[in-house]
User: Which sequence fits this backbone?
């Protein structure tokens, strides 16, 4: 054993701490004692040419030897030590961005160098999660103005990589979220790629919803492609639908999303910076943003939509992006399924043109694809709507989608959940309101998105009539326990569907 006081051998703890690097040491180990480390101390590790700042968790029993440090999966992946590796441990220097962080917490405006320092420290794990939570909170609401939003967007792009697809338009589409089942992206990508345009789509996994686009796509094809693999798919098929966390085009934003997840809030400025930084990094030139507006959607009012649209336009203009905005109905779910496999089923039904395909999902996808086609200058004389309809009706979009799936690693059919039960209406009348948030929560309690087949099948829409005892929706679950958990919550939520007579 080496005599250096601050060296320990490294072990793999096999503990998933999501994206947060954690190191485990025994409280009586010589490094803890000599360096004065305690629980939640930030620790700088050096192993060979690599270094990493991690959060310390202190072990009090004898499962960890005094001469060893165990690394969480995130820390092990980031440090990549070999077998029998050793590392040195010491206190890190204070984060360079600490003054900027404090300034923002106390309500001061930040400049682009401040945001760049913050994003560099975020990416290099120099800021603890509690500090990042303070930053996210200090930016929440409307505490990022237009100039700060532009600066934050540029900083996020600067600390990641940026793809270059060469000459010609590169299209993209994004939905700000908050609407269950609104899985238009795979359909839009298939239509746009079938029309001969490039659309390298990077998508997120669920943050607070029952499914993100990447979760739904992963039911049908691999999505965890690296940048080189993504490029090969796009060069071969014109489009892709991959998980943005694997290609890491705006990696600082991925860290902030990890912190925002348990807080369940963000700001307009952070939302704009998150969305547009990824579009810029992906090499997009023409971007369409879908903004569902409704009382239980993410954007809840016309005034809120107008504020967000103004910020999106200003930031896109500063970045040289050609931006289209489409305000859509966010009062109720889209499609029948809420959850990865159920949404994938709906996507395939629309692409295949089956008689039971959800008409609202099909219509919304066609409208969005048409608007994106019309956004590109020099397109053929006939309108985007006709082009989108023709590509969908002819089967060209389906063929392109299956080809993209094969290029990403192979297509597979969505699988149904083994446990299904209906929730019945307790009163009759017309569907007056649908609470998107509560409906999404039931789907999550059923196991979505961790269990891909879990979720909700909901076929009622505003204005539909229902009688007492008729099903409002079905709950799908992988296990009986998850099914009962979701049903127990659903039984107490009488306002998920407000049923009555029109005044």
Assistant:
């Amino acid at each position: 054993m080496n005599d250096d006081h601050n060296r320990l051998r490294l072990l793999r703890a096999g503990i998933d701490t999501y994206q947060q690097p954690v190191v485990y040491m025994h409280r009586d180990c010589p490094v803890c004692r000599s360096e004065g480390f305690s629980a939640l101390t930030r620790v700088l590790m050096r192993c060979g040419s690599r270094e990493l700042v991690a959060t310390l968790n202190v072990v009090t029993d004898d499962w960890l030897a005094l001469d060893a440090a165990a690394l969480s999966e995130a820390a092990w992946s980031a440090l990549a030590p070999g077998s029998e590796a050793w590392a040195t441990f010491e206190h890190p220097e204070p984060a360079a961005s600490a003054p900027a962080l404090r300034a923002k917490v106390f309500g001061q405006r930040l400049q682009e160098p401040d945001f760049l320092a913050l994003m560099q420290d975020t990416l290099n794990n120099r800021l603890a999660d509690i500090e990042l939570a303070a930053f996210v909170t200090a930016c929440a609401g409307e505490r990022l103005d237009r100039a700060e939003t532009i600066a934050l967007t540029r900083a996020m792009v600067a600390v990641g990589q940026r793809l270059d697809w060469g000459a010609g338009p590169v299209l993209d589409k994004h939905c700000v979220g908050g609407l269950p089942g609104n899985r238009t992206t795979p359909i839009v990508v298939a239509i746009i790629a079938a029309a001969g345009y490039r659309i390298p789509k990077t998508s997120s996994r669920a943050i607070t919803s029952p499914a993100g686009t990447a979760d739904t796509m992963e039911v049908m094809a691999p999505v965890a492609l690296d940048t080189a693999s993504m490029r090969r798919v796009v060069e071969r098929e014109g489009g892709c639908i991959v998980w943005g966390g694997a290609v890491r085009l705006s990696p600082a934003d991925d860290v902030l999303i990890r912190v925002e997840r348990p807080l369940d809030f963000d700001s307009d400025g952070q939302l704009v910076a998150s969305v547009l930084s990824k579009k810029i990094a992906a090499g997009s030139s023409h971007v369409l943003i879908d903004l569902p507006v409704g009382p239980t959607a993410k954007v809840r009012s016309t005034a809120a939509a107008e504020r967000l649209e103004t910020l999106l336009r200003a930031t896109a203009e500063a970045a040289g992006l050609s931006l289209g905005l489409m305000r859509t109905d966010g009062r109720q779910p889209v499609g029948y399924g809420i959850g990865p496999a159920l949404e994938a089923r709906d996507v395939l039904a629309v692409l295949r043109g089956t008689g039971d395909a959800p008409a609202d999902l099909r219509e919304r996808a066609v409208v969005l694809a048409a608007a994106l086609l019309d956004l590109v200058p020099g397109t053929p004389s006939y309108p985007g709507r006709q082009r989108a309809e023709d590509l969908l009706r002819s089967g060209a979009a389906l063929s392109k989608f299956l080809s993209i799936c094969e290029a990403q690693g192979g297509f597979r059919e969505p699988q149904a959940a083994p446990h299904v039960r209906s929730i019945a209406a307790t009163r009759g009348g017309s569907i007056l309101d649908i609470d998107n948030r509560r409906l999404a929560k039931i789907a999550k309690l059923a196991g979505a998105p961790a269990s891909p087949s879990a979720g909700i099948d909901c076929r009622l829409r505003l204005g539909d009539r229902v009688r007492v005892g008729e099903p409002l929706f079905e709950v799908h679950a992988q296990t009986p326990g998850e099914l009962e958990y979701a049903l127990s919550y659903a039984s107490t939520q009488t306002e998920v569907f407000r049923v009555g007579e029109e005044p």
